[in-house]
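Sequence in, structure out. Go.
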Amino acid sequence: MPEENNIINYINHIKNNIKKWRSPRVRGLRQRWILNTIAPIFSILSFIVILFSVGISNYYFGTIQKGLETRAQALANSFNEYFMNSGYTSYNIRAVQAADRFEDRNRLELQFTNASGRIIVSTSGLTAGSLPGTDDISGALSNNLMTAFRGTDPETGEHIMAVSHPLVSGGRVRGVLRVVTSLKWVNRQVWLACLAIFLIAALCMILVVASNLLFINNVVEPVVEVTDAAKRISSGSYGFTVDKTYPDELGELVKGINNMSLKISQNEKMKSEFISSVSHELRTPLTAINGWGETILEDPAGDPVQMRRGIRIILNETRRLSIMVEELLAFSRMEDGRFTLRIEQMELQPEFEDAIFTYRELFKQEGISLDYQVDDEIFPAIPGDPERLKQVFCNVLDNAAKHGGAGKKITASLRREGGRQIVRIRDYGPGIPEDELPFVKQKFYKGSSKARGNGIGLAVCDEIVTRHGGEFTIGNASGGGAVVTISLPENGAA
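Output:
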């Protein structure tokens, strides 16, 4: 049974691969790959095979023709010089003698023709008396030039090569000396050489195709995986990741897709939490404002202490709503690119102290002391947006009371350090967990804190300070609590 299951699993694996290869995107990728890679290689190999075949054929036949021409030239010169001036009868006798003494009769056939092109003497004896009528004989007789012929012998049907040289007597062509050889062995050698180069080219082509198919399979598989993953992510399966890993650039692509999916999932989760948090944050102060408003309205002549308490709660909740609305508006402008600053020469100290004095009384009502420290020196004006920077100070102070109010103490200071004006706000609460420090400035991030908030205040503060060319850092202070440092250059953004 286990063997049967293995066989079934293997068959299913093959079916899945076939389906992948039949899919349009894989088939299109394979066709483009063949067109762009295999087709040029096939063309080059075909050209090489044709070039080699033509070259080897020309080499073999050219060598043979040159040898025949040399042999025919030597024999014809001898005949023309010593025998042709003795008359036609002497020519016949000498031709018979030359044919009988011809040493290469096993490889070549020596023929002599009369002035009409008919063979009168031949070393083979089979062609004597025949009239070949080939171009080499007619060319030698009519043009008085040595002429070659390669083709089929009209008499025997054999593939031959022949060279005919005219024999001249008294200024007239009296006959032709013809050297003939069969091309059967040469054709076989040429065919074997061409077959060898064809087989080599075919083997190279098979290796190229096999290696390319193997390579494209390794490319297609992750492409299909990534494509499927992208489709699932685009359809809403945020957090889906590709399990397979690859060692090359495709591995980097898979890693990027996985990271993108996880970040989208995290952002979606944070957005959902943000919407839930904002809904809760809006509902709580509105409920308090509505409840105390109705209480005061129904009992205008009631207890003054109770009335003052209700008005204080309404003011506190209204302040929270105002900060929240400012954060949401700033965040909305940041998201769609409408977030701008109105830069002017401003004094940082009055704006910071205005926020300190505003929150000191509010914190006092909650039992939190706010200590302010400042150097006894003149702080020069810096380029900045007073409204936005005051928004940063108010948000950080409110955040310190919200998350570190358990320490019942907040310290704020303003210093000049190296051409920069430094604002530090520290609380004495529980601090921030070390594993959450890298994320506290990210939008929608709330971490493990149970304090009220929408998770975008610090992100907005970081954006404002960064656009001023400054630095906005958050860390844990020595001795407990968290400290926020706002560093602004006195010469403006770089």
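Check: Residues 24-82 form the longest helix (59 residues). The two ends are 74 Å apart (CA to CA).
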